Hints:
Blueprint: E1 34-37, E2 42-44, H1 45-48, E3 52-57, H2 64-75, H3 77-82, E4 85-91, H4 95-105, E5 111-113, H5 118-122, E6 126-131, E7 134-139, E8 142-146, E9 152-156, H6 164-168
Parallel strand pairs: 3-4, 4-5
Antiparallel strand pairs: 1-2, 1-5, 3-8, 6-7, 8-9
Amino acid sequence: MNIGADFSAPIFCFTVLSLYHIMLQISDKMPAFSVVDEQGNTVTEKDLIGNKVVIYFYPKDSTPGCTSEACNLRDNYHRFLAEGYKVYGVSRDSVASHVRFKEKYDLPFPLLSDPSTGMLQAFGAWGEKKMYGKTTMGTLRKTFVFDEQGILVRIIDKVDTKNHAAQVL
């Protein structure tokens, strides 16, 4: 009788993956990032510090909710300027997609392209989403407001795409 281990049976190894979600909190400094705008210019957090900034993350150019949100911000852009804010939209879309989206809807603010999701992850705007009963990873619609020193002063997690400017201002 052999009491030793049976090495003829297949061995299954399981890797436990832990998804660490960064959660920015009020008074946190703006995370480091480097992305490209719709004109091909590199934009980093250092370029934004010194201004009051609204950074809104959205899933996809030219989809109904994202278009409503962008157009609401566009229609109220003069109010943002009057309050001293610069506005930036961020999605995984390509620079070419951003150019088309910006031109089609006459958006007056820069759109930042983050296909690698580095900026999305740094801001906690990348995570699990449920769509049609299926869980996938994707862009979480969120907005962050920073003061001139790059300190987070407001987070909007539940975005009303048709009235987003009123939520921010």
